[in-house]
Amino acid sequence: MIELFKMVHGFNESDACPKLEFNTCTKTRGHSYKLFKRPCATNIRRNYFTYRVVIVWNSLPNEVVTAPSINCFKNRLEALVLSGYCF
Fold first, then answer.
1. How far apart are CA 49 and CA 28, in angstroms?
2. What is the pLDDT of residues 14-54, one digit of tens each?
3. Less Cβ crowding at N or C end of the chain, within 10 Å?
4. How far is CA 86 from CA 1, 18, 19, 72, 81, in A?
């Protein structure tokens, strides 16, 4: 989740990051950084990092995803996990 946070918010170099597609639907619930999950036809694609993390990322609350820094994101994510949040 930390690496995905870095990718979405531009903390990583753009050449090293895989291409992420944001959900452009205006009726999304939750945060504005929702990612689009493309359907895959093969089992190989289902094991990619960018495919596996989309469901968990999209289920995070807005206050976690919109954290101003990486350390703040880590702290909020850890507090969320310790509170018993189910992904």
1. 23
2. 666 667 777 767 566 778 888 888 888 888 878 888 788 88
3. C
4. 15, 27, 27, 20, 8
| This prediction's pTM | 0.79
Query: Any idea which residue has 């976690």 for tokens?
Result: 64
- Segment holding 73, helix H or strand E: helix 70-82
SS3 label, residue 47: helix
Question: Which tokens in the block code for residue 72?
Answer: 């703040």
Enter the tokens of residue 78: 């850890």
Residue 75 to residue 18: CA distance in whole angstroms = 25
- Nearest-angstrom CA–CA distance, 80 and 87: 10
Tokens of 29: 């619930």
Q: Are 35 and 28 in contact (CB under 8 A)?
A: no
